[in-house]
Amino acid sequence: xxxxxxSGGGSVQAGGSLRLSCASSGYDYVTYCMAWSRQAAGKERxxxxxxxxxxxxxxxxxxxGRFDISRDKSTNTAYLQMNNLKPEDTAMYxxxxxxxxxxxCDFNIYGQGTQVTVST
Length: 120
Hints:
Helix content: under 10%
Number of strands: 11
């Protein structure tokens, strides 16, 4: 079975940076799509960004220009570089992936999450 494990979360002051990693296991091919989403306390989960075979997409307007998603296809590892962090970025960050070689993205595999806390 494919599994995803997130790491890299932590506590940082506003203006700081963190790099989240999503390591996968169980794949023997390059999966089509991986993504990062987040859920703040009392709010619905929102997708932040996704990376797929043809490129990447920052979906959340609030992080455009500050966050960047990338992927190591050789290992199906996804990264989320987060710069100029703000207190409103505080949330549990989750990795998601699909289990197909071709699109469209259809996420059905999720990690347990890594907490990001940004203080003023």
